Structure to design on (1209 residues):
């Protein structure tokens, strides 16, 4: 089987240098000219404790990923980077003082020679080789089409190895491998510095070398048309090619045959992580691309100010992605977008928000974001993303881009950002159009979380929070606080009487994509979460995949930037500082740290790269917390804190089956609880005048009388729907009286109450709760059952129910958003005088919205009887004060719930 | 419309607080509606466009509109529609324009009308008209002076009783209701005057109807998809597969609204905010049962 070029690093397994002593951190090479770093390394073998067991050699796939690979290739030849990261100066100082031997050995950073690695490769092959691997050298011939005519615009052979890169598309960085060789002395391929073997370090995207799919990173080019080549003569040889032609390239390729089955394991792991990781690496993932190629989608950044004198074609397009046939059509009608924007603003006096088009049989929604004289346009088909959602998405995109680049203009109007944005929007559209393919498809809960779940959860202004036992939480908080104090003892700048480089504003810790601790203000947390969401970092950490993740970049937090601009009112001024985001991931943990430079610390000059000391301290914090992951896993494995029921249990027919089944753990627990907690029913007639003859029925439908419960619903499931409703209404006598709750609690012993509150959210003798979602905008978090909890409740109906729940939440939430918007407007006082309907505008604010669904099993074969039905509510509740809080719940309709009560129970029960 | 030469049809656009809808009919006439009403949705505006075009067809005939010969003349002819179109722009308490069902009053017996060429309307009482669809004869005068009194005079008293909306004894919390029979394409609706016991903030009577209309549009476009809905699928209908929505409610500061469906009937209720939320469902079930069963709608 031929591997795609980008996969090559899997063969090029090498020992992890990340934790060996006295080595510069392996990510150092990946730091870009502007100081940014996005380094992702995957641990292949999930079983082996890579980090603790440092002495052994493990198979690690080393991958260096750059956000702007295309740009690097151009830039790489221009200039060597001028800056020398300050951390290096720092480590030099340390080295001189011979302070560097570190207790753990992990902080060891030999001062590297300040060598600015020309960032040439996309994916670098580690030339060091893994122990316990047999290496065979093989030769292969690859035919490549080259066209020297296309080179006219480039500077030709001005730079070393320029032709190899521009003509063929092979990236070779001589100095890099030389340096490696010097350091590790292992690279057998080095013959001499002057006559270095031409190892493929990277492939230029879209180049002919890339297109063949046969050239692997790590291969060494030894001959061109049977002429032996090395670094010395390659340029001369290539410059002899006069016309477009096919050339035969001969490569020496290393075939690794790993011992044991790691190869096989890798394959398995690969299939599940393929898509997301491939995308993150920025590989040319044709499979994923093809899948969405036919779907019309586009993002464009247009300028409204046109220079009429130099009228060029498409000059109004400042940025555009993707360039495919389906999007071509959307691009060609950009005139409509511009005209609409202009006309509607003239007519209505407000910016255009969205429009709908009918394009080749599909409804395409287009959303707009207008800022000064620029217009950002995002278009997606309505079947992929509902309009209300798309509007949230563009807001998130804008916020993330501003977080990363300060303003839309600086993001879109700089040439070197183009490839970064391409990557950003590639991820964006993949997430929007086929979110399920991106997430791991091996996990059993995957089918519960379909497109709508992803759409909903991705658009919430918050992060999924995992509640933890108090003592675990304490431990985490302590560790984070220690880090934030930045007291690095002899490693700290204070020790050398230097001014601090950075102040740590706060940090937040994720485990498997769940937020488990946060020491950041809400706005900053959301900014970071959005960044993580757009780069799919959270699902990435959900699987055990991260060998090491280091992200460093300058950021522009919304919150701090805003205060800078309008601070005079409060008297407090945010310092004129620069902010940096550092994300370090190890295994399932991901720790995000927000740093400030220039406030009380020294000013940041130029584009500082990541500082080894800070990276190592963050890493050390995670390592310190390694021990708690068993506690967290335990929490993830245990059933949900508010107990959940499975929808299938409530089908009359399935009850018989259920009885014969050995009691499922959750159900038995459920039955126990319903025994301990006395039934909180209070006989209360509904609306005396209008209620029907209330008739006492057995209050229990599952817990107590599973055998008798079978007959009733079948009777009522007859043809006359009114009869069903009638019956249901009659059962309403188990209605909880919210005003009597006090009495109820008095009656229960204190312990029972506690138990009751802890495990059951719904009222009534049975647990009727199917699913919930609580969004606390105050903290910027939301709480929902974990994937694992949902996976416990397998069934045929339940997954559908959850899917429907999420779809409903989307629609309910869009109504709530209107309310929030109106409320905001009202507070701002806009339009208070002009609208005559002002009086009812606040009467119009929707606070609660519920839908009752009826469902029946899909595969009902018995034709004599109608299929059994189950009815359930999906209810959303919005609290505007003191801070907006949203709450969605899905429960069986046998008990009437008071949504407010449920919401309070949930948010108070979960001590955040 | 622009974009048509590129095979792209623009259907809708939205700004903060304003919606615009385009629709081309028979490739000859394009109607554009712009609305900044609070309760406007794509569903209501789409229905409005349908209605306006239907008005034009009613007055001018489809042939005239599909093959326009003289635009200036057509413009002149269209003036005849203005009044009718205005009535759709100011719907008041009526809902037929939205539901596309015949609005009825509760009467003990109903008569079947014959097939028609003329539409004649006569006001019997304020708010109560009879519509006659009849052929070329008899003459308008004959109908007005002879036939109408002959048939309707004996029924004037019972009709007078029907004309008052609160002919149905309902819970005092009910502000307005709309009942639709989809099989027979009939609807029954009323906005009920509030009793004196009402407290707190309440919707003015006039806005009850518009709130109910907005609620109807929300529910029908999201949860109770009805056959032959003219709305392009701008929003995704919910509850696919074997999960179908039965009831739905909305609670806001000034009102509560509840919708229930029991084929072929759909009931939409607007209730006072004092009515407890948990009581909405039994109340709606009861009213539906009463109207369909006892009142024999």
């Amino acid at each position: 089987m031929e591997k795609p070029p980008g996969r090559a690093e899997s063969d090029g397994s090498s020992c992890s240098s990340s934790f060996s002593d006295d080595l510069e951190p392996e990510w150092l090479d990946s730091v870009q000219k502007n100081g940014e770093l996005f380094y992702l390394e995957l641990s292949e073998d999930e079983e082996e404790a890579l980090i603790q067991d440092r002495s052994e050699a493990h198979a690690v796939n080393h991958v260096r990923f750059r956000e702007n690979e295309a740009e690097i290739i151009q830039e790489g030849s221009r200039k060597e980077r001028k800056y020398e990261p300050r951390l290096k100066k720092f480590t030099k100082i340390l080295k001189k003082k011979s302070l560097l031997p570190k207790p753990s050995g992990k902080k060891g950073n030999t001062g590297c020679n300040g060598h600015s690695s020309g960032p040439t490769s996309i994916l670098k092959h580690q030339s060091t080789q893994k122990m316990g691997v047999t290496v065979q050298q093989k030769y292969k011939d690859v035919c490549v089409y080259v066209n020297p005519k296309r080179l006219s615009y480039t500077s030709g052979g001005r730079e070393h190895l320029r032709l190899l890169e521009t003509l063929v598309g092979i990236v070779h960085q001589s100095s890099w491998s030389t340096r490696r060789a010097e350091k590790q002395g292992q690279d057998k391929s080095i013959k001499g510095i002057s006559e270095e073997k031409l190892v493929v370090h990277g492939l230029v995207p879209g180049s002919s070398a890339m297109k063949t799919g046969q050239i692997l990173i790590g291969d060494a080019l030894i001959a061109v048309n049977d002429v032996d080549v090395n670094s010395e003569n390659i340029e001369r040889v290539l410059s002899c090619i006069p016309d477009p032609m096919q050339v035969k390239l001969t490569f020496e390729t290393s075939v690794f045959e790993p011992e044991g089955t790691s190869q096989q394991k890798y394959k398995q792991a690969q299939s599940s992580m393929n898509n997301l990781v491939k995308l993150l690496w920025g590989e040319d993932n044709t499979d994923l691309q093809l899948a969405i190629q036919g779907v019309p989608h586009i993002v464009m950044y247009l300028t409204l100010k046109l220079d009429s004198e130099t009228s060029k074609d498409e000059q109004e397009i400042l940025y555009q992605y993707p360039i495919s046939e389906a999007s071509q059509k959307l691009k060609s009608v950009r005139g409509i977008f511009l005209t609409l924007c202009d006309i509607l603003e003239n007519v209505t006096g407000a910016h255009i928000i969205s429009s709908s088009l009918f394009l080749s049989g599909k409804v395409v929604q287009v959303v707009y974001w207008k800022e000064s004289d620029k217009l950002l346009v995002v278009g997606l088909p309505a079947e992929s993303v509902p309009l209300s959602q798309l509007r949230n998405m563009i807001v998130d995109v804008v916020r993330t881009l501003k977080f990363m680049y300060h303003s839309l203009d600086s993001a879109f109007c700089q040439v070197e950002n183009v490839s970064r944005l391409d990557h950003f929007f590639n991820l964006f559209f993949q997430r929007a159009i086929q979110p399920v393919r991106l997430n791991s498809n091996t996990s059993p809960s995957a089918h519960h979380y379909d497109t709508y779940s992803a759409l909903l959860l991705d658009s919430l202004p918050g992060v999924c929070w995992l509640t933890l036992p108090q003592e675990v939480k304490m431990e985490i908080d302590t560790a984070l606080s220690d880090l934030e104090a930045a007291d690095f003892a002899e490693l700290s700048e204070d020790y050398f009487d230097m001014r601090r480089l950075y102040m740590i504003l706060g940090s937040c810790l994720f485990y498997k994509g769940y937020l488990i601790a946060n020491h950041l203000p809400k706005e900053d947390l959301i900014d970071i979460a959005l960044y993580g969401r757009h780069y799919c970092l959270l699902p990435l950490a959900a699987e055990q995949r991260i060998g090491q993740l280091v992200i460093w970049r300058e950021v522009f937090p919304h919150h701090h930037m805003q205060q800078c601009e309008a601070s005079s009112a409060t008297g407090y001024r945010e310092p004129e500082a620069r902010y940096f985001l550092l994300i370090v991931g190890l295994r399932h943990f991901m720790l995000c740290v927000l740093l400030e430079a220039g406030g009380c610390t020294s000013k940041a000059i130029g584009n500082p790269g990541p500082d080894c000391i800070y990276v190592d301290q963050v890493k050390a914090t995670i390592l310190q917390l390694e021990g708690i992951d068993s506690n967290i896993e335990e929490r993830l494995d245990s059933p949900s804190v508010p107990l959940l029921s499975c929808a299938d249990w409530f089908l009359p027919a399935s009850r018989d089956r259920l009885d014969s089944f050995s009691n499922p753990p959750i159900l038995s627990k459920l039955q126990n609880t319903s025994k301990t907690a006395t039934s909180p029913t209070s006989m209360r007639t509904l609306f005396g005048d209008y209620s029907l003859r209330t008739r006492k029925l057995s209050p229990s439908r599952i817990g107590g009388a599973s055998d008798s419960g079978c007959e009733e619903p079948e009777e009522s499931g007859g043809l006359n729907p009114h009869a069903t409703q009638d019956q249901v209404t009659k059962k309403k006598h188990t209605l909880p009286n919210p005003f009597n709750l006090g009495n109820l609690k008095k009656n229960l012993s204190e312990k029972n109450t506690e138990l009751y509150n802890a495990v059951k959210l719904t009222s009534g003798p049975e647990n009727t709760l199917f699913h919930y979602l609580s969004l606390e905008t105050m903290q910027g978090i939301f709480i929902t059952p974990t994937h694992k909890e949902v996976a416990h409740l397998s069934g045929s109906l339940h997954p559908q129910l959850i899917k429907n729940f999420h779809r409903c939440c989307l629609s309910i939430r869009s109504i709530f958003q209107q309310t929030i918007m109106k409320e905001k407007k009202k507070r701002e006082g806009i339009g208070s005088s002009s609208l005559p309907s002002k009086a009812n505008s606040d009467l119009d604010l929707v606070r609660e919205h519920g839908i009752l669904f009826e469902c029946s099993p899909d595969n009902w074969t018995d034709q004599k009887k109608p299929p059994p039905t189950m009815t359930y509510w999906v209810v959303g509740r919005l609290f505007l004060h003191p801070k907006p809080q949203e709450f969605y719940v899905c429960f069986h309709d046998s008990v009437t719930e008071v949504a407010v009560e449920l919401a309070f129970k949930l948010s108070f029960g979960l001590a955040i | 419309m622009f974009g048509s030469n590129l095979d792209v049809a623009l259907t809708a656009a939205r700004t903060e607080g304003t919606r615009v809808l385009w629709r081309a009919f028979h490739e000859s006439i394009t109607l554009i509606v712009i609305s900044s009403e609070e309760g406007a949705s794509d569903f209501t505006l789409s229905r409005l466009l349908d209605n306006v075009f239907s008005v034009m067809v009613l007055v001018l005939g489809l042939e005239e509109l599909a093959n326009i010969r003289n635009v200036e003349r057509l413009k002149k002819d269209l003036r005849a529609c203005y009044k009718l179109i205005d009535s759709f722009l100011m719907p008041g308490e009526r809902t037929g324009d939205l539901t596309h069902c015949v609005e009825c009053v509760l009467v003990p017996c109903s008569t079947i009308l014959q097939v028609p060429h003329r539409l004649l309307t006569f006001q019997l009482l304020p708010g109560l008209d009879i519509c006659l669809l009849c052929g070329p004869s008899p003459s308008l005068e004959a109908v007005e002076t002879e036939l109408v009194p002959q048939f309707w005079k004996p029924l004037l008293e019972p009709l007078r009783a029907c004309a008052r909306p609160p002919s149905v004894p309902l819970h005092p919390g009910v502000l307005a209701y709309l009942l639709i029979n989809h099989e027979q394409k009939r609807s029954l609706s009323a906005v009920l005057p509030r009793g004196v016991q009402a407290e707190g903030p309440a919707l003015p009577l006039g806005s009850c109807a518009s709130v109910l209309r907005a609620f109807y549009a929300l529910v029908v476009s999201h949860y109770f998809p009805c056959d032959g809905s003219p709305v392009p699928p701008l929003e995704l209908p919910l509850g696919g597969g074997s999960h179908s929505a039965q009831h739905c409610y909305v609670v806001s500061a000034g009102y509560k609204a509840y919708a229930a469906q029991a084929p072929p009937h759909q009931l939409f209720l607007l209730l006072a905010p004092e009515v407890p939320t948990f009581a909405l469902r039994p109340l709606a079930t009861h009213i539906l049962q009463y109207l369909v069963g006892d009142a024999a709608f």
Chain A touches chain B through 76 residues (CB under 8 Å). The mean pLDDT of chain A is 67. Chain A has 32 helices and 25 strands.
